[in-house]
Amino acid sequence: MPSLKDLRNRIASVKATQKITKAMQMVAAAKLRRAQAAAEAARPYAERMETVLANLAAGVTGSSAPRLIAGTGSDKVHLLLVCTAERGLCGAFNSSIARLARDKALALKAEGKTVKIICVGKKGYDLLKRQFEKDIIELIDLRSFKQVGYANAETIAQNVLSRFAAGEFDVATVFFSKFKSVISQLPTAQRIIPAEIPAGTKVIEAVYDYEPDEGEILETLLPRNLTVQVLRALLENAASEQGARMSAMDSATRNAGEMIKKQTQLYNRSRQAMITKELIEIISGAEAL
Amino acid sequence: MATFKFELVSPERILFSGEVVSVIVPSIEGEMTVLAGHAPLVATLKTGIVFVQTTGNNGKDFFVNGGLVEINAASTTILAEQGRFLEDVNAAVLDQEILSAETKLTGSQDEDEKKRLQDTLVQLREFKHVFEGRKAA
Asked: What is the DSSP secondary-structure string of chain B?
């Protein structure tokens, strides 16, 4: 039976924790609004880009097609670009992305393919390094950036492109969490090299004229598409992270509240038991006289 | 008048979406007017003004800096690298763009990149000149 002082201390510490989780929840809620707006604003451009690319890609099949659309012709080496958060305490957000990446990596390895991993965000690295120490070729740290933007995405895309140009891999897939709502984020894998044409995209079969010429347009469009897709992954991730943190902290606050209630009840009970015990002692002492 | 579906999208937001009568696009090889039933075309854009004619006499101007236009039977889409409403553009904004292009140019190592930035810079300066002339008129 814990003493009254122990109980009091315990209640005080749970209350302090509750204050912290409450504050974190409110901070996440405020950040979420901005992140969500940014993610939603970036969607139309990325989607239109995909449609345009799908239309173009339908017209350029064959040996003349650029490698960013057609691929290198083999799929021996896979690059996994795992985008996660820099910070924890956001529920299953990081671990669900890492799990998706891990499953994919193991499946590829079982098929005898080589896997290379680039981690964007420290948490994904922490989760994957034990199992894939040798496969992780780089950790991209975005901690110093408060708000990820086009410039960050461009740096990452350039990095990936130069590796592709150097023939370091054949297929690249980006892992991120799609923001559906505050309580639901969907871990997603998207192939970015060769560019994936999403199923259900209505392809308009047309013979396009090109100005200045086909090669030059695709040469600028494809790298930009990569940047845009990476940017989308980063922005969706940022919104998902805040959403996940908000709901995780909300339930943490609620749990703390419940715990306080239980402990207070226990505290009051033992206090009353003590008073009753003392009264009995006094009364029986008086009766004995 | 025959209309067609037109969208102008920048990475930050959708600037315009709707049925239009005609669009004047600053393509890299000169300005062109797109009407309903235009042949399928993909063209890169230079710095300039996109003029969108929504109905007989109404229109809207947009400023775009780089990007591309895709024209097909169903719709016309401009994917602008940078896009704004023209009324949001002033000399200060253009100077800012010119400055950032200049900074990138000095920092760049890659030859292709340098050439591209040089082109952008020339276009921006040219546009600024036109823009100021337009305002004075």
From this structure: ---EEEEEE-SS-EEEEEEESEEEEEETTEEEEEETTPPPEEEEB-SEEEEEE-SSS-EEEEEEEEEEEEE-SSEEEEEEEEEEEGGG--HHHHHHHHHHHHHHHHH---HHHHHHHHHHHHHHHHHHHHHHHHHH-
B95 phi and psi angles, rounded to 5 deg: -60, -40
Rounded Cα distance between A158 and A193, Å, is 13
* Category of A195 on φ-ψ map: left (φ > 0), alpha (ψ -120 to 50) or beta: beta
3-class secondary structure, A161: helix
Element (H, E) at A10: helix A4-59
Shortest CB distance from A204 goes to which of B11, B74, B81? Answer: B74
Q: Does the reported pTM lie above 0.80?
A: yes
Task: Please name the amino acid found at residue A228.
Answer: V
Task: Give the other-Cβ count within 10 Å of B26's Cβ.
Answer: 21
Which one of B9, B79, B100, B115 makes the best mutation probe of the A interface by having the most chain A beta carbons within 10 Å? B79
Q: Which residues contact A17 (CB under 8 A, 6 or more apart)?
A: A256
Q: Given CB atoms, is B77 within the 8 Å cutoff of chain A?
A: yes
Element (H, E) at A100: helix A93-110
Say whether pLDDT at B56 is over 80.
no
Determine contact: A48 vs chain B, CB below 8 A.
Answer: yes
Res B77 pLDDT > 80: yes
Instruction: State yes or no: ipTM above 0.95.
Output: no
Mean pLDDT of B112-121: 79
Q: Is A207 in contact with B81 (Cβ distance < 8 A)?
A: no
Q: Please indicate whether residue A90 is annotated as part of the active site.
A: yes
pLDDT of A201 over the 70 cut: no
Q: Specify the CATH superfamily of domain B4-86.
A: F0F1 ATP synthase delta/epsilon subunit, N-terminal (2.60.15.10)
Q: Do the chains contact at A45 and B79, CB–CB below 8 Å?
A: yes
Residue A196 DSSP one-character state: P
Closest CA to A239 of A20, A25, A29: A29
Nearest CA in chain A to B8: A45
> Could you say which of A32, A83, A90, A120 is catalytic?
A90
Interface contact flag, B9 A41, Cβ < 8 Å = no
Residue B88 contacts A where some CB pair is shorter than 8 Å: no
Per-residue pLDDT at B6: 92
